[in-house]
Amino acid sequence: MSIRTKIFFGCISLTLVTIFVGFLAQNSQSKLNAAALGIYDNAFQSMSYLRSAQAIILGISREIAVGGTNTAVFVDQLQSTLDALDVARERAMSERGAALARQLQAAVSELQATLRDSGASPGRRDFEAIERTFDSAVGVYASDGFRLRQSAEALVAETRLKTFVAMAGSIVAAFLITLLLSRAIVPSIRQAVGIATAIAGGKLDNRIDGARSDETGLLLTALATMQRSIAEKIGFIEMLMAQQASSHDVEIASQNARFETALDHMTLGLRMYDGDDRLLVQNRRFSEMFDGEDVLASLAAALPERRATSHRPEAGSGTYHCRLADGRTIEVSQEAMAGGGRVVTYDDITERQRTEARLHRMVRHDALTGLPNRILFREHLQSEVAAVRHPARVSVLCLDLDRFKSVNDTLGHPVGDALLRETATRLVGTTGDAGMVIRLGGDEFAVVLGGDAPGADAGALAERIIATLSQPVHIEGHHIAIGVSIGIAQTVDGSETPDELLKNADLALYAAKGEGRGTYRFFAPEMEARVQGRRTMELDLRVAIADGQFLLHYQPLVNARSGAVVAFEALLRWHHPERGVVPPGDFIPLAEEAGLIPDIGRWVLEQACRDAVAWPVGVKVAVNLSPLQFQYRDLVADVEGALRRSGLPPTRLDLEITESLMMQDSDATLATLHALRALGVRIAMDDFGTGFSSLSYLRRFPFDKIKIDRSFIRDVVESEDGLAIVKAVIRLGQSLRMDVVAEGVETVEQKTLLCQAGCQELQGYLFSRPQPVSEVAEIIRTMSMVAAA
User: Fold this and answer.
1) Residues 612-670: pLDDT tens digits?
2) Is the omega angle on the peptide bond into residue 122 within 30 degrees of 0, that is, cis?
3) Which residues of 761-787 are buried (b: 16+ CB within 10 A; e: fewer)?
4) What is the DSSP letter of 770?
5) What is the pTM of this model?
6) In terms of CB atoms within 10 Å, which end of the chain has fewer, N or C?
């Protein structure tokens, strides 16, 4: 059997093994895909429609409880309930679930017929049996989904085992096939290599057996032929060497011809002189570069410069540049030859210098605005500091645009880039010749003022810049108004380094932003102490996470009609061992900057769910989510894990988000919110009305609850406009079937107006301040007594 045939059968065997493993993997993938689709189509969608039907029934029940009498609307809503139950029944995962769905359809149909025929509003008792049946159905559907998940996990385990077995089998088969091929091929090849090595070493009397008929036999036969041929040609080669000696003169002539060809095709001009400075050689490129006596005179006039610009100290050697009258720059390199004479090359570097100049500018200037960048900023600042003489001062102004991120996120990067270019133009126009304007990156700029520059008053320049950049900008039809915060650092005795000045200006900028933005501050030594304090607090914050120094306080949300507690909002507190209780406003922003929010947020979820399990069944817990939790961790897994470990039903957990989250990455955010809602939790929009696009967010994601910001509640008593806004939000929530919560209720008058406007839930100091978990039971008891009275 030939080597080709052996290799062919080996490849066929390996291919068959690969096809078998691939077929097994494809079959397993199909089973897993079917299981995943079953979980989604049956478990998730049936549960979603069942909960949707339950939500409508609960909404009608609440409307009737507060005196609603719109029978026609109730009939239409009950029809929507029947449609949702029909889908839930079709996608039921067990006969028991389908039976409960049919039972619910029958009860809802009966209630709908009663409303349609009699027109009378049913009582609360008419809904209690249906609600209990819904609770039973939710439990059955959830149990069915859990069983389906268990079966999928078993299928994954079985598939993994089969795959491992197939992989092991394929490895063994490949090893055996490789071993058989090696034993069939390698010995013959080794024999041929040994013979070839002997021939290469000069041994030409090797005994070669080429009787075999396979490729190895053919190779040995060829080696035998080669051995005979080499022996026959040795004499012939010796004869040729004698003949070549006689043709040496011809070869020299040929080499000279090649040398001349190479000279004529050089990209450099070349001249060679002897010891008496007589021209020996000149190539074609030199003639093409210089076509007149004037050019040669310019080169001769520049010749003395070679000693001043020489790259080598030896006499007669060096490199210098010559600027010709036609604008070209020629680089002349001269090298002395052993025994006297010299070789001079000429290179036209005009275009190279232009390219280098362009690259030099690109490296030191910002591509978007054309302003100097950090590299040129550091060079310029270093030269200014070195040149300053007391009492003159060099000033560094660090600028950060206010509200730029909001513009960039809401209107898009092209508008943001146009705004940065307009900002650069205004800065250059405002600064004038007094200093250099630099773009540090992003929306950060800087200005360097020389100590003796005209108009070098840093404070006056900062005021002019703030006034200029506060003027509105019109870009692509958008009316944009931003501001700027400025930090200023100045030299004192000229010993400051550029890094120190920039750091001090950054500290002053941080202070300006902390005092409300739209202003400027000069650096003061105590600013560094404040920054050091923040670093210390950050270290303490990391210790607090490890040592469990956090705790939760809870503030109740009450039913506006009955006064009963319906939920508690979890509010984070930090009990520092030395500073005592640290307000959230002091450490939450620092935790966000330090990237600690994901760990803190996960702890809050776990603790709030564990605390809420002990509360009455009808009382929920609300947890605020930071936008950073959507970026750094798998938030859905965190929420699902907290619910599973605590045993808290998902329906008793409300997750509150702010509009700033929706502005970051709407597609990714919406996907996460839908996944959270699929778990069964409720989603609330916190601080509603304080963002840019509240209504568009309500349209894109169906929130379960909206919380009116306390800034609107504060004015409902004194301001008719404030009350009108609150009423409009409440009506909007009712039309979208969302619960509406009023935050910051502090007076009885505010409560009365909000109840009259139809607000469902209230929260504020009027009912209770945030309290430790140990006080929750007492709050529920007290509020229940008040509600009963």
Assistant:
1) 999 999 999 999 998 888 876 689 999 999 999 999 999 999 999 987 676 655 677 88
2) no
3) bbbbeebbebbebeebeebbeebeeee
4) -
5) 0.46
6) C
